[in-house]
Design goal:
This protein is an alpha/beta fold and about 300 residues long. The chain has two domains: about 5-60, no CATH class; about 65-300, 3-Layer(aba) Sandwich (Aminopeptidase). The chain is about 25% helix and about 25% strand. The protein has helices spanning about 125-140, 160-170, 215-235, 250-255, 270-275, 280-295; strands at about 5-10, 15, 30, 35-40, 60, 70-75, 80-90, 95-100, 110, 145-150, 180-190, 200-205, 240-245, 260-265. The strands form four sheets. The chain has a seven-stranded mixed β-sheet, sandwiched between helices. A three-stranded antiparallel β-sheet has the order 3-4-5, covered by helices on one side. It has a two-stranded antiparallel sheet with strand order 1-2. Helix 1 packs across helix 6 and helix 3 (about 215-235) runs antiparallel to helix 6. The two termini are about 30 Å apart.
Amino acid sequence: MYGKFKVFKKLGFVFVLSLVIGALSVSCVEVIPGGFETGSSDASGGEDGTENGKDAESEFVSPEPAGGTDIFHEGRGENKNFVVVIDAGHQDHAMNGTEPNGPGSDDMKMQLTSGTQGVYTNIPEYELTLDVSLKLRDELLKEGYTVVMVRETNDVEVSNVERALIANKYKPSGDNDYICSVNIRVHANGFDSPDMRGALMYCSTASNPYAIGELFEECYDLSMSILEPYCELTGMPQYKSPVMYGDDMTGTNWCEIPTTIIELGFMSNKEDDILMATDEFRLNAAVGIKQGIENFFSQYR
């Protein structure tokens, strides 16, 4: 859009929107991919929208949440070809149909559970995970990463298999320029005992029979990269077994890119539940997860 004029046709006449450049000082603002507004308040700036040949100051503008699924936010600069798919766990209703636990599996599982909720705050898991996920989206977009949101609202209908297939669309291949893509599944725990607390990561095993099994090392590295900065910034303790392994997660078994689940904390524990309800925690959670993702991406540069 930079440096271009818009031409509008109406009733057979052509009106050209033009700018008078001379002694007058002008101001222009343009929203560009990634949620940035770039402005120049001096007509002496460079021809490419920069001031004196240098990048003008840019201010991030958080995109409004979009309806539907598979919401693509294009990155910018040197991080553009690093892709983060964010799957905010659950939605505002369960899906009671069944789907295979993995490609070709005869083990049929529920399409999507309703998730847990805060025992003390009554906040549904799907609301918590979406808020943290949107904040994570913004932190990544600020750094120029390409971000794909499985959902940005609660009133969607997308099963575990469908979530994984969205992530698989952004697998690096000869058809795109992606360097590395990861899938971050954001969840929170619940348990019968109120004593269990802390964050943990959940990834597939090395013996997983599906494609994700071949990515065990990457999934483990991704998990470990995220856990430490997340806990450090939020003050959430690590669960006694900070990384758990299993091949029973449909939304992971169908994935073909490095994938991990972060369990933010236990909504059945009073301390965790109250902590996770605060805006400060949720922003710090997003920043911590972002730092972990960047640590993981650093090996591909």
